[in-house]
Amino acid sequence: MISVCKATAISLIVATVPLLGAASECEPQMPQLTVFEQHIANRGQARNAYQLAAKERAVAAQSCACPFDNWGFGAFIHFRLDKPVGELNQQEIRALRQWSDAEGVAILRAYGEFFSAQCHEGE
Fold first, then answer.
1. How many other CB atoms sit within 10 Å of the CB of residue 82?
2. With contact defined as beta carbons under 8 Å apart, do 43 and 17 qualify?
3. How far apart are CA 11 and CA 20, in angstroms?
4. Chain centre to alpha carbon of residue 9
5. 4 burial level (CB within 10 Å; 0-12, 13-18, 19+)
């Protein structure tokens, strides 16, 4: 039997947007959850969705503060999925990834434009 592998194009968009203060001061804090132990990619996919939602929220609020300040991962899950963070499951991780894939580029572009135009270090 001969297996045939199709080449798949993968695009990766990386947007670097400086944040006020030291980078270590503005990092998303992720809890230890059972769903993160079920598959190696779950933590990263959930973290990516959280970062995007926090940046989208910052643009809507016109806030230059760290997007994760006063809005932790648990608050994100409650906002996005209307459930406690400890109940997050594999299916919801997939839904978060699908949302990130669909909305990520637009959110990063909007956040980058907002941050460049409105936010200046030291303010």
1. 7
2. no
3. 29
4. 23
5. exposed
pTM of the full structure: 0.78
How many whole angstroms from its chain centre is CA 121? 23
Q: Are the CB atoms for 71 and 119 separated by under 8 Å?
A: no
Amino acid identity for residue 11 in this structure:
S
Tens of pLDDT, residues 2-52 = 444 444 343 334 444 444 444 457 999 999 999 999 998 999 999 999 999
Phi, psi of 83 (to 5 degrees): -155, 160
Please answer whether residues 108 and 15 qualify as being in contact, where contact means their C-beta atoms are separated by less than 8 angstroms. Answer: yes
Helices in the chain by DSSP H: which ranges? 34-38, 42-61, 73-81, 90-118
